[in-house]
TrEMBL record:
<comment type="subunit">
    <text>The complex comprises the extracytoplasmic solute receptor protein and the two transmembrane proteins.</text>
</comment>
<feature type="transmembrane region" description="Helical">
    <location>
        <begin position="87"/>
        <end position="110"/>
    </location>
</feature>
<dbReference type="InterPro" id="IPR007387">
    <property type="entry name" value="TRAP_DctQ"/>
</dbReference>
<comment type="similarity">
    <text>Belongs to the TRAP transporter small permease family.</text>
</comment>
<keyword id="KW-0813">Transport</keyword>
<feature type="transmembrane region" description="Helical">
    <location>
        <begin position="146"/>
        <end position="168"/>
    </location>
</feature>
<keyword id="KW-0997">Cell inner membrane</keyword>
<comment type="function">
    <text>Part of the tripartite ATP-independent periplasmic (TRAP) transport system.</text>
</comment>
<keyword id="KW-1003">Cell membrane</keyword>
<keyword id="KW-0472">Membrane</keyword>
<feature type="transmembrane region" description="Helical">
    <location>
        <begin position="48"/>
        <end position="75"/>
    </location>
</feature>
<dbReference type="InterPro" id="IPR055348">
    <property type="entry name" value="DctQ"/>
</dbReference>
<dbReference type="GO" id="GO:0022857">
    <property type="term" value="F:transmembrane transporter activity"/>
</dbReference>
<feature type="domain" description="Tripartite ATP-independent periplasmic transporters DctQ component">
    <location>
        <begin position="24"/>
        <end position="170"/>
    </location>
</feature>
<dbReference type="Pfam" id="PF04290">
    <property type="entry name" value="DctQ"/>
</dbReference>
<keyword id="KW-1133">Transmembrane helix</keyword>
<keyword id="KW-0812">Transmembrane</keyword>
Length: 178
């Protein structure tokens, strides 16, 4: 069941990453066209950068599910199969720990409970925490950067799901479970 949830989430991540890649292409073409006409739209550059960041984080999380992450296997390739499996389980465990730390960092950064305690009043939240995450606007778009940074939640939760699924799947295979 966890593997199925990971696969479904990875499909969503890949679809969103593909949409971001298409958006980047269109935004860059729009940028080239408007600059050549002498009426540059400066918000296009910023939006393309944010789309690139979203594409990168969504694609990185999905890569964990598909096993397409970059790996150096020069050492593990020469190890006996049981030790190689143990090393792979250890790597999955390290990725899981990293993903859990990312959730913790996002929790501390976004402070959703403190925001709720302040009645979702961002000014009261800022006064209580000196955390301005919900107030800082983007340079040219004028939207709150918290919306842009929310991709970190998607990445952290997706990476946790994928690494858990990989860990359980690899552990089951190592034990010879069906």
């Amino acid at each position: 069941m966890l593997g199925r949830a990971s696969a479904n989430w990875a499909r969503v991540e890949m679809a969103l990453a593909a949409a971001m890649a298409a958006a980047i292409t269109l935004l860059i073409l729009l940028n080239v066209a408007t600059r050549s006409l002498g009426v540059a739209l400066f918000w296009v550059d910023e939006l393309a950068i944010y789309a690139m960041a979203w594409m990168t984080f969504l694609g990185a999380s999905a890569a964990l599910h598909y096993g397409h992450a970059v790996a150096v296997t020069i050492l593990t390739d020469v190890l006996p199969r049981t030790i190689r499996t143990g090393a792979a389980i250890l790597a999955d465990l390290i990725v899981l720990i990293f993903a859990l730390f990312m959730i913790w960092f996002c929790w501390r950064w976004f402070s959703p409970l403190e925001l709720a305690r302040q009645g979702f009043d961002t000014k009261a939240f800022q006064a209580a925490t000196f955390n301005f995450i919900y107030a800082e606007p983007t340079t040219t778009l004028g939207i709150k950067k918290a919306w842009v940074w929310s991709v970190m939640w998607f990445f952290a939760l997706g990476a946790t799901l994928h690494s858990l699924a990989n860990l359980f799947d690899r552990s089951d295979r190592a034990r010879g479970a069906p």
